[in-house]
């Protein structure tokens, strides 16, 4: 069979087109693979950060469980657990001494604000309405009252970039002499220009921070008891809180354990 020149030219044109487009398709495929690989690496990095934070929480819970198991049965068959002494060198009767001191002060302020008031049996009752109004008035005043400067010793649990100029931290306050945990972890922010010590020493070091603590009190008419795993945030019926610290100074500092002296508080 004789093939016409036009057919040959058409076939050659198709082959040339395929040859030209194939490298472009391969290059596009490589680009997509690189993009997917980068997305996977970013996701792995995020999951590793979340895993590290979860491991810190699990370790803290395991320590508490071990203490409870050890104290479950006292010598002689008594079921009364022994008192576990907690060494603290700071005066936590001062509200801004630590996160838990601040929480205790806020709780005391709340109880004083609603003292002798009845919650009421239903959401529509006059007692419930009056109680909620008192809590709302108190929350606004308490946020102003307990916004104060702090100087705390901390461990770094998590580091995230909020923006090009701001870093968000998850921190755990500790006693500066004994390393005792002082309340629940909290969130803090610091400008990148003030985070040089953190960048040099990393998250495994301990730090002294100075800044302003900003309490945020949430009033919720449905919150009559603590939410699961949120007991530390519960102030009282219809009120819970979180704190954020705006850090102005963050310097690496080691825990300095000393022999008990007159200036330390040994609990």
Structure description:
This protein is α+β, with helices and mostly antiparallel strands. The protein has 2 domains: 24-69; 91-258, OB fold (Dihydrolipoamide Acetyltransferase, E2P) (Beta Barrel). It contains 4 helices and 8 strands, in the order H-E-H-H-E-E-E-H-E-E-E-E. The strands form 2 sheets. A 5-stranded mixed β-barrel has the order 2-3-4-7-5. It has a two-stranded antiparallel ribbon with strand order 1-8. A hairpin with a 2-residue loop joins strand 6 and strand 7 (239-252). The termini are far apart. Residues 258-267 have low confidence and may be disordered.
Structural descriptors:
single chain, alpha+beta, OB fold (Dihydrolipoamide Acetyltransferase, E2P), five-stranded mixed barrel, 4 helices, 40% helix, 24% strand, globular, disordered C terminus
Estimated structural class? alpha+beta
CATH class of the largest domain: Mainly Beta
Largest β-sheet summary: 5 strands, mixed, barrel
Number of domains: 2
How much helix is in the residues?
40-55%
The total count of helices amounts to 4
Mean pLDDT: 82
Structure summarized in a few sentences:
This protein is 40% helix and 24% strand. The protein has 267 residues and is of the alpha+beta class.
Helix-strand layout with pairing:
Elements: H1 5-71, E1 87-88, H2 99-113, H3 126-145, E2 148-161, E3 166-174, E4 186-191, H4 196-201, E5 206-219, E6 234-236, E7 239-252, E8 265-266
Parallel strand pairs: 4-7
Antiparallel strand pairs: 1-8, 2-3, 2-5, 3-4, 5-7, 6-7
């Amino acid at each position: 069979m004789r093939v016409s020149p036009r057919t040959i030219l058409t076939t050659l044109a198709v082959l040339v087109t395929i040859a030209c487009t194939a490298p472009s398709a391969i290059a596009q495929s490589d680009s997509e693979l690189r993009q997917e690989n980068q997305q996977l690496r970013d996701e792995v990095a995020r999951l590793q950060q979340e895993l590290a934070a979860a491991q810190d929480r699990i370790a803290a819970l395991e320590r508490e469980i071990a203490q409870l198991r050890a104290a479950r049965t006292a010598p002689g068959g008594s079921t009364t657990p022994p008192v576990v002494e907690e060494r603290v060198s700071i005066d936590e009767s001062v509200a801004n001494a630590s996160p838990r001191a601040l929480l205790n002060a806020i709780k005391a302020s709340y109880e004083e604000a609603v003292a002798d008031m009845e919650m009421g049996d239903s959401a529509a009752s006059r007692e419930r309405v009056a109680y909620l109004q008192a809590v709302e008035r108190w929350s606004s005043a308490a946020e102003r009252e307990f916004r104060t400067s702090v100087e705390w010793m901390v461990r770094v649990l998590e580091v995230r970039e909020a923006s090009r100029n701001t870093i968000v931290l998850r921190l755990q306050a500790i006693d500066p002499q004994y390393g005792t945990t002082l309340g629940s972890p909290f969130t803090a922010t610091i400008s990148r220009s003030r985070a040089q010590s953190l960048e040099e020493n990393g998250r495994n070091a301990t730090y002294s921070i100075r800044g302003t603590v900003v309490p945020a009190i949430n009033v919720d008419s449905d919150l009559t008891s603590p939410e699961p795993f949120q007991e530390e945030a519960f102030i009282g019926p219809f009120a819970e809180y979180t704190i954020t610290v705006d850090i102005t100074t963050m310097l690496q500092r080691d825990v300095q354990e000393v022999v008990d002296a007159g200036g330390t508080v040994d609990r």
